[in-house]
Amino acid sequence: MSGMPQRPYAPVLERLKEAGLRPTRQRLALARILFTNGDRHVTAEQLHDEALKAEIPVSLATIYNTLHQFTHAGLLREVVVEPGRSYFDTNTSDHHHFFHEQVGQLEDIPGDQVRLAELPAPPSGTAIRRVDVIVRIRPS
Amino acid sequence: MSGMPQRPYAPVLERLKEAGLRPTRQRLALARILFTNGDRHVTAEQLHDEALKAEIPVSLATIYNTLHQFTHAGLLREVVVEPGRSYFDTNTSDHHHFFHEQVGQLEDIPGDQVRLAELPAPPSGTAIRRVDVIVRIRPS
DNA sequence: CAGCAGTTTAGAATTGATCTAGACTGATTC
DNA sequence: GAATCAGTCTAGATCAATTCTAAACTGCTG
Ligand SMILES: [Mn+2]
Ligand SMILES: [Mn+2]
Ligand SMILES: [Zn+2]
Ligand SMILES: [Zn+2]
Fold it and tell me: CB of B103 within 8 Å of any CB in chain A?
């Protein structure tokens, strides 16, 4: 047992380099957790727990640093749906979200499934940076 | 100087009674600040400051209590746009928002100025509780 | 392999919000 | 109007998420 890691580091290493981020032990490990498991929406706390379970002792401060660096590098996108807690989205393409309030869980809505037929012009002197559509759902 | 207050208490008193909330000194004062100045988007901290400036010493705990009671009574609506801070909206009609990120300020978009032409069905077993559209803007 | 900018980290600090338990008060009853 | 009491208010403690700090560490480059 235990030869090479289940998942290769090469692709995420490449992503970090492209983003101009030094591929440190912690960043590599976190990038692998985040980017080799399909689209994800994680909180800092969740990622921290996962890292520790995967035997990667990372401090919470580094989790926050890394999440923000990845976000600023365009590898992640921050989504705010609840006061007091941020979610980080590995899907950086144009899309929107269901938010399951009881569970605190985000789910993608493909970008083409929400059409904003009409959108007002931004107040003069301002430009639109991003449009977020949050569809809040609950068990029925 | 100082006869009757600039703004009458009667109308807000009426609103409180209708909502089944006992019209206490603090609730009356806060309701007057909130509801007799047009549509507003305030944080707890902002409302607290305003109250103190208006010579109405209210504790921060009461500010939070009141904001939540008003929200649950349908007099206010909570809007989440930033991690770590909630805004309370005196406009409870169906509408959406510009959010000026640099300033931390919300601005109404009339409900009919955003049309969601297409909206996906909610995941089975769930129902839509509310749809929030946040248009994030910045100075250009 | 020396040097150093960039990175990580433990722990303290900050922030917005909530909780607690006791004091207060608006409404109701006599 | 005084007594009563559920509902309300408040100071202060507490909490959860996040950020900050300053010192140790580590990936590069020369
Ligand atoms: Mn950031
Ligand atoms: Mn609430
Ligand atoms: Zn997403
Ligand atoms: Zn509004």
Answer: no
CATH of the domain at B84: 1.10.10.10
Nucleotides in D strand less than 7 A from protein CB: 7-12, 16-21, 26-28
Terminal C-alpha separation, chain A: 46
Asked if residue A37 is part of any domain, the answer here is yes
Tens of pLDDT along A22-38? Answer: 999 999 999 999 999 88
On strand C, nucleotides with any atom < 7 Å from a protein CB are: 6-11, 15-20, 25-27
Terminal-residue alpha carbon distance, chain B: 47
- Ligand 3 centroid vs A74 CA: distance in angstroms? 14
Q: Is the residue at B1 inside a domain? A: no
Give the range of the structural domain holding residue A27, as residue numbers without chain letter. 10-137
Q: Is the pLDDT of residue B32 over 70?
A: yes
Look at chain A and report how many structural domains it folds into.
1
Rounded Cα gap, residues B133 and A30, in angstroms: 31
